[in-house]
């Protein structure tokens, strides 16, 4: 259990660092971070603290959807935004545009790897992914439709509030899925346990992938 907790905490912290790198690149962000940046611009609150508060508000939406948070859900709310807030003062935006693109890609790669680390610990869905699965289970909406509807709404709201939408928004949407798809099996604790019990053959349960990704911190 200690190893899984450590894996969760490290993964969430690295996820926040990756988000901070993408923010500082300044070429666009994923929908939820656009939303957090927009609120930050309007209120003066640090974007990391807004990420934490947004996660808490989203968690409240689980109540009518009859979802139950896990340890990983609470850790997600507390750690990702805090890591973003602590990392941003250590970064600076490079002047050359290509350097900013490279910075964003590095942040996206780190977010994808970190997702594999914390999702592989299997401590439960983050608040945003729980919202998607809750809509699916409560109303029968397809997961893709729930995700598209929610993320399109927060992206539009974030853009109207002054959040950064651009090339990075597209790059993240295209790249994050494949990166997470590769990284999750590398850090999946249940899959590793299954292989340890039966060398050369994982258990059927270990083949079930963790819940998917909806940044920041799912």
Automatic annotation (TrEMBL):
Bilayer-crossing regions: 44-63, 70-91, 97-120, 141-161, 167-187
Keyword set, alphabetical order: Membrane, Transmembrane, Transmembrane helix
PROSITE patterns xrefs: PROKAR_LIPOPROTEIN (PS51257)
Matches recorded under Pfam families: DUF6198 (PF19700)
Keyword Magnesium among record annotations: no
Keyword Cytoplasm belongs to the record: no
InterPro entries xrefs: YczE/YyaS-like
Highest taxon of source: Bacteria
Annotated segments matching region Disordered: 195-218
Protein name in the entry: Membrane protein YczE
Protein source organism: Microbacterium thalli
Source lineage: Bacteria, Bacillati, Actinomycetota, Actinomycetes, Micrococcales
């Amino acid at each position: 259990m200690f190893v899984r907790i450590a894996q969760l905490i490290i993964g969430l912290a690295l996820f926040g660092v990756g988000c901070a790198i993408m923010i500082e690149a300044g070429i666009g962000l994923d929908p939820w971070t656009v939303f957090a940046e927009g609120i930050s611009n309007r209120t003066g609150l640090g974007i990391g603290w807004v990420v934490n508060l947004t996660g808490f508000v989203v968690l409240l939406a689980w109540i009518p959807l009859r979802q139950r948070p896990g340890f990983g859900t609470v850790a997600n709310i507390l750690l990702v935004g805090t890591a973003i807030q602590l990392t941003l003062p250590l970064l600076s935006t490079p002047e050359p545009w290509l350097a900013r693109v490279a910075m964003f890609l590095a942040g996206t790669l780190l977010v994808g790897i970190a997702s594999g680390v914390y999702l592989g610990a299997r401590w439960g869905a983050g608040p945003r992914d729980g919202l998607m699965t809750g809509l699916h289970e409560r109303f029968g909406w397809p997961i893709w439709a729930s995700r598209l509807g929610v993320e399109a709404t927060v992206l539009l709201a974030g853009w109207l509030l002054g959040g950064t939408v651009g090339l990075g928004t597209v790059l993240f949407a295209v790249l994050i899925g494949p990166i997470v798809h590769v990284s999750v099996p590398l850090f999946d604790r249940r899959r590793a346990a299954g292989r340890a019990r039966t060398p050369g053959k994982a258990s059927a349960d270990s083949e079930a992938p963790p819940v998917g990704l909806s940044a920041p911190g799912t």
